[in-house]
Amino acid sequence: MDFMTALDVGGSALSAQRTYMNVIAMNLANAKTTRTADGQGPYQRKSVALESTPVTPFGKAMNAALGDELQGVRVTGIVADGRPAKQVFEPGHPDADQNGYVQYPDINVVEEMTNMIQATRSYEASTSTITTIKSMYNKALEIGR
Predict the structure, then answer these.
(1) Which of 10, 13, 107, 112 has an alpha carbon 20 to 30 Å from 47's alpha carbon atom?
(2) 82 with 106: CB under 8 angstroms?
(3) What mean pLDDT is predicted for residues 22-27?
(4) What's the CA gap between 25 and 42, in Å, rounded?
């Protein structure tokens, strides 16, 4: 694996985890949204779809040489979670139906915080990988002096 391929793999992970963190923040910000801007029902929880992807054309040459695939990761889309809305009895709420129930998004704050910690740790691991790669190549350059 060359220097740039290693950085591309780490960079793709950083980009994917940043997108994941943004979606988690959006979910937490809308945990109590009963009506979206377009007047539709409650906010629908979102999730990130990821897939592995070849990093560079150099990766194909490495695959042929090593018999292994060098893969990065990329976000394929942000998808709505299919969970049904929670119904809470609040007859005084302006969005309550004729029976007094309000529909809230089914967002569990503990689950979202857990996902946020996982994304943060993954981001930190990718950052550490990139730092290690830079350090290794700096040491390799010092050998040549």
Answers:
(1) 10
(2) no
(3) 95
(4) 17
